[in-house]
Amino acid sequence: MTRPLVAIRSVSKTFGEFQALKQVSLDVSAGEVLCLIGASGSGKTTLLRCINQLTPVDSGGIWLDGELLGVREQGGRLHRLTERQIARQRLKTGMVFQRFNLFPHKTAIENITEGPVQVQGRSRDDARTEAMELLRRVGLTAKADAYPAQLSGGQQQRVAIARALAMKPMLMLFDEPTSALDPELVGEVLSVMKELAQSGMTMMVVTHELGFAREVADRVVYMDHGAIVESGFSRDVLGAPREARTRAFLSAVI
Amino acid sequence: MSNSAPLAGGFLDLSKLPVARQAHWRRWIAAAAILAALAAIGRAFANGQIEWSYVSRFLTARVILEGIVNTMVMAVLAMALGIVLGVVVAIMRLSPNPVLKSVAAGYTWLFRGTPLILQLLLWFNIALVFPTIGIPGLWSARAVDVMTPFLSALLGLGINQGAYTSEVMRAGMLSVDAGQYEAAKAIGMGRLRALRRIVLPQAMRVVIPPLGNEFIGMVKATSLASVIQYPELLHSAENIYYANSRVIELLIVAGLWYLLVVSILTPLQMLLERRFARGFSQIAR
Fold first, then answer.
1. ipTM at complex level
2. Which residues pair with A15 in a beta bridge?
3. For residues A172 and B200, what is the distance between their CA atoms, to the nearest angstrom?
4. Under an 8 A CB cutoff, do A105 and B202 touch?
5. Tell me: the pLDDT tens digits for B213-252?
6. Counts for chain A of helices (H) and strands (E), in that order
């Protein structure tokens, strides 16, 4: 069996009194599309943020492409990585936020080229050419010079996906990418994500869109109270859940 | 349904009736009272002991013009120093390093907590504390020679301004959504690059109106530098009236110049605001 792209081992995270993650372990293979479902507060977003190191873990470890994230073992002790090293590790992941978080003072194409030019030091022309290709992929070539405020929520989220892809990540993280959208705009974002999944991108998606999970995900993980309750092939978890809690959640959602 | 048809239920058809003008007699009385008061004040000044010919003669006097140039030079330089210090101190204030944080807070506390005129006098008289200043082994000079009125005023006004500007900048940076820092981090930016490329440009939009206010304050605060012999506008006016005793006339001359400068600055600020509102025009107008 090949080494998983993401290996999460006994990760715990506490915010004050609230234990967001309890000893979570999970593997994600390259090319896999994994959907994380569960009620709000179940820890799925926190898990995603830990992988991108927007939230540091309290204990346990996350390996991405064989590299331990955030800390380094030396002489039997763990040493925190510097901000610069963490920033470098982050380049392997792309993050799509619930509230898009586009840079409002930059146009769509400037949002996409910002990372490649400023962080990766690529030439402006190359970055622009690639950004146009990404905009074509998300169906927004005509909106290259529009500011985020001139775009609909669905369009903003598609630009945000293009922005994350511009960094050429090996793993894409989606944190409830359609939760802030008007219902009629959800479809356009999901279809971009579906196309991305079919292109072979490894994706971890926190979502309430069970239809998307059923159709696109290879595997579904159901979380509750900071722990993984059930995980497996999407048709099994969504179609024939073994755990009572999963069944209760699914019947409440549908 | 045609227009002439009577409305159902016997209600009057209002669509044909003209709207009568309202008689705003209270407004007329209030306006008349205020105009009368203004006229009385104007008449008092016209008949008062002011030699208006002196005002017009000294309005463009060479010393006065040099004074306004010195005022503007000092205001611009001190504001520039204040903004640089303000940005640095605001970033220190928001840094995770506790030492940087408390030094920044201490700076704001010290320079906001003492009168500006006292700070100007301190800088000007710093030679009493340090007779010679310099870098050991490289360069040294007598403090009296270094601390000219110009340098004392620049340091006094600029460092004081920095304390105020840092709070304006901090407010601006806090106004930027936390999601923007996260998005910047997510594309691999470090803290300082995220501040420079993402957060500060957005903060500028919020910060320019209060900074414009601060700059107008600065133009007028330069007049305090007259106490340390910096030849700005008020100092020039004073020098003239010490000689010719036309105190009020020269104060009016200085006042008119300050008003003119501030009147020019206001549209300039609007241009700047428009520049930094890029991308926001649809939502914030």
1. 0.92
2. A18
3. 28
4. yes
5. 999 999 999 999 999 999 999 999 999 999 999 999 999 9
6. 9, 12
Backbone torsions φ then ψ of A85, nearest 5 degrees: -65, -40
CA separation, residue B278 to residues A117, A150, B266, B274, B283 (Å): 21, 11, 20, 7, 11
Q: Do the Cβ atoms of B188 and A52 come within 8 Å?
A: no
User: Of A15, A46, A2, A49, whose CA–CA distance to A227 is shortest?
Assistant: A46
Interface touch B202/A104, C-beta < 8 Å: yes
| Per-residue model confidence as pLDDT tens digits over B79-92 | 999 999 999 999 99
CB atoms within 10 A of CB A64: 22
Report yes or no: A80 at the B interface, CB cutoff 8 Å: no
- A50: closest CA among A37, A59, A42, A41? A59
Q: Which amino acid is it at A12? A: S
Task: Report pLDDT digits (tens) over B162-191.
Answer: 999 999 999 999 999 999 999 999 999 998
| DSSP label at residue A4 | P
* Of B226, B228, B258, residue with least CA distance to B240: B226
A115 and B197 within 8 Å at the Cβ level: the answer is no
Task: Compute the nearest-CA separation of B138 from chain A (Å).
Answer: 37
Q: Where are the alpha helices (DSSP H) in chain A?
A: 44-51, 83-90, 108-114, 124-137, 153-165, 183-198, 210-216, 234-239, 244-253
Q: Does A167 touch chain B (CB under 8 A)?
A: yes
Q: Model pTM?
A: 0.83
Size of interface A-B (CB pairs under 8 A): 78
In single-letter form, the type of residue at position A217 comes to: A
Span between the terminal Cα atoms of chain B, in Å: 42
**Alpha-carbon distance A131 to A159, whole Å?**
10
CA within 13 Å, CB half, B91: 13
Q: Name the token pair of A15.
A: 């915010």
SS3 state at A78: strand
Half-sphere exposure of A104 (CA within 13 A, CB side): 26
Question: For an interface test with A, which of B182, B187, B199 has the most A Cβ atoms less than 10 Å from its Cβ?
Answer: B187
Neighbours of B38 (CB within 10 A): 10
d(CA B73, CA A110): 37
The sign one gets for the Cα dihedral A148, A151, A156, A162 is negative
Query: Which residue stretches of B18-148 are H helix?
Result: 25-47, 52-59, 62-93, 98-113, 116-124, 143-146
Relative to beta strand A219-224, strand A33-37 is parallel
Residue A26 pLDDT more than 90? yes
From chain B, pick out residues whose CB is under 8 angstroms from the CB of A83: 190-191
- Determine contact, residues B68/B59, Cβ cutoff 8 Å: no
Interface check for A163 against chain B (CB to CB < 8 A): the answer is yes
CA distance A152 to chain B (A): 12
CA separation for the pair B160, B85 (Å, rounded): 10
Our measurement of the distance from residue A48's CA atom to the centroid of its chain's CA atoms, rounded to an integer in Å, reads 6
Task: State the amino acid at position B237 in one-letter form.
Answer: A
